[in-house]
Amino acid sequence: QQQEQEQEPPKPKQRNLLDNASNLLTNFLSGGSLGAMPVAEGAVTDLFGKPLFFSLYDWFIEHGSVYKLAFGPKSFVVVSDPIVARHILRENAFCYDKGVLAEILKPIMGKGLIPADLDTWKQRRKVITPGFHALFIEAMVRIFTKCSERTISKLEELTESEGQVIVDLEAEFSNLALDIIGLGVFNFDFDSVTKESPVIKAVYGTLFEAEHRSTFYIPYWNLPFTKWIVPRQRKFHSDLKVINDCLDNLIKNAKETRQEDDVEKLQQRDYSSLKDVSLLRFLVDMRGADVDDRQLRDDLMTMLIAGHETTAAVLTWSVFLLAQSPTKMRKAQAEVDSVLSNGAITVDTLKKLEYIKLIILEALRLYPQPPLLIRRSLRPDKLPGGYNGAKEGYEIPVGTDIFVSIYNLHRSPYFWDRPNEFEPERFSVPKKDESIKGWSGFDPNRSPGAMYPNEIIADFAFLPFGGGPRKCVGDQFALLESTVALAMLLRKFDVELRGSPDEVEMVTGATIHTKNGLWCRLRKRRT
Ligand code: HEM
């Protein structure tokens, strides 16, 4: 292990004059003016058979941490450098919008936070962020517990006769995350853990289409009449209608029982006595937040999609990693047994589940959700110089499409020791050397009080929830939700993979998930 630690990270390929000349020519031919930025020539076949972010990683090692990816006439700038990422996401964030991503998601999320134009985004972000206040999060912990209990009871029933069962945990986590997001965001109990319903089917249908659109390179769905002619588009529109009708009803009910109040008063409500603790209730009751129903529906739809698959994925990969590491599994179970020995789960008990939280963060490092952030420049910009192969700052013309590869940043051999190893402990090791950029250990003096090692502490080498003004609004929600669910699973079960880890192939749309499910053997623990 020590030897591994001291291994030199690979050096970006040295470019010679000929390479540079060919880059310039390719830039010129593909219509860009991205200067001498290295160019990775992608074959369309690179897009099939394996997730795109794998190829982006290989090209990062070959061409350095800012390069241009050219697919015929289409090109993207791929960024794997923390300084450049910080510039795009935080320092000059408003020079960029969500580009291709917004185009894909607009038909589903309308003017919700993710695809919204800047003016709508500014207005809605100001209204939505206060909704995630401390008492709301506390109330959510009760919802996380209740929903996780439902999943655990179902799994206990399945193991009853033989003491063990083989299940697809990815599917179970997906149902659990859907139930939680429904109750937390708009007080609707999908109860997908125990039943099927047209609304649940419609949600999965819509997620499936969102994924199809994010991996299909020709937006045929924008052509006239496709929504009537192409069967999958017809189905998509009918699924969307089922969800929209459901959300419209919930909004109507919430408005009929509206109790206007100031943000401060709403944040002090006695959440323990409220029947409806959802974010929708807060948004509707907020004085001065008069908003048309269409916008509210877009907000809810956005959070349903942004908060569902991401959380299900982090739980899936946490278990995948733990199941291959029996010592870490036992360490996690020992922590859970000692912290949860006396009953109810609260925000305070959750703070003591330090190791579980680090497991979740380490799973997010290795399998970031989403693996790429997508941006498009609204004005010309000049990127700052960065590290490895990105020392010069490049000019970015207006309309440039950019992928900030979180996957590459999180597995960068330049910023992480043993980047591909699962080591939750890495986040609690004291920082070795102040002069080393990126993540080289935990520095408790930086950003004291931070709930988790975040992008600020890691100088943008670690971006589990993005960074800058478009950072995830649900980070605390998601982290506590995953902590509760994982802790409750480990309290009751020992988990083993059914086959070999290599059989669990990755596929990716908006998030990284498995090709055929995460099939595990669960054995009831004797505690
Ligand atoms: C944005 C990750 C859970 C709501 C983001 C972004 C990331 C992210 C990386 C930034 C996207 C970008 O810059 O382009 C995650 C992960 C989650 C999670 C890993 C779970 C483990 C949630 C939950 C909610 C949520 C539970 C809501 C309850 C949002 C919204 C945005 C967002 C609304 C857009 C923010 C904006 O543009 O202002 N998320 N998220 N997310 N997330 Fe999350």
UniProtKB/TrEMBL annotation:
<dbReference type="InterPro" id="IPR036396">
    <property type="entry name" value="Cyt_P450_sf"/>
</dbReference>
<dbReference type="InterPro" id="IPR050196">
    <property type="entry name" value="Cytochrome_P450_Monoox"/>
</dbReference>
<protein>
    <recommendedName>
        <fullName>Cytochrome P450</fullName>
    </recommendedName>
</protein>
<keyword id="KW-0408">Iron</keyword>
<keyword id="KW-0503">Monooxygenase</keyword>
<feature type="binding site" description="axial binding residue">
    <location>
        <position position="472"/>
    </location>
    <ligand>
        <name>heme</name>
    </ligand>
</feature>
<dbReference type="InterPro" id="IPR002401">
    <property type="entry name" value="Cyt_P450_E_grp-I"/>
</dbReference>
<dbReference type="GO" id="GO:0020037">
    <property type="term" value="F:heme binding"/>
</dbReference>
<dbReference type="InterPro" id="IPR017972">
    <property type="entry name" value="Cyt_P450_CS"/>
</dbReference>
<keyword id="KW-0479">Metal-binding</keyword>
<dbReference type="GO" id="GO:0016705">
    <property type="term" value="F:oxidoreductase activity, acting on paired donors, with incorporation or reduction of molecular oxygen"/>
</dbReference>
<keyword id="KW-0349">Heme</keyword>
<dbReference type="GO" id="GO:0005506">
    <property type="term" value="F:iron ion binding"/>
</dbReference>
<dbReference type="InterPro" id="IPR001128">
    <property type="entry name" value="Cyt_P450"/>
</dbReference>
<comment type="similarity">
    <text>Belongs to the cytochrome P450 family.</text>
</comment>
<dbReference type="Pfam" id="PF00067">
    <property type="entry name" value="p450"/>
</dbReference>
<keyword id="KW-0560">Oxidoreductase</keyword>
<dbReference type="GO" id="GO:0004497">
    <property type="term" value="F:monooxygenase activity"/>
</dbReference>
<dbReference type="GO" id="GO:0009507">
    <property type="term" value="C:chloroplast"/>
</dbReference>
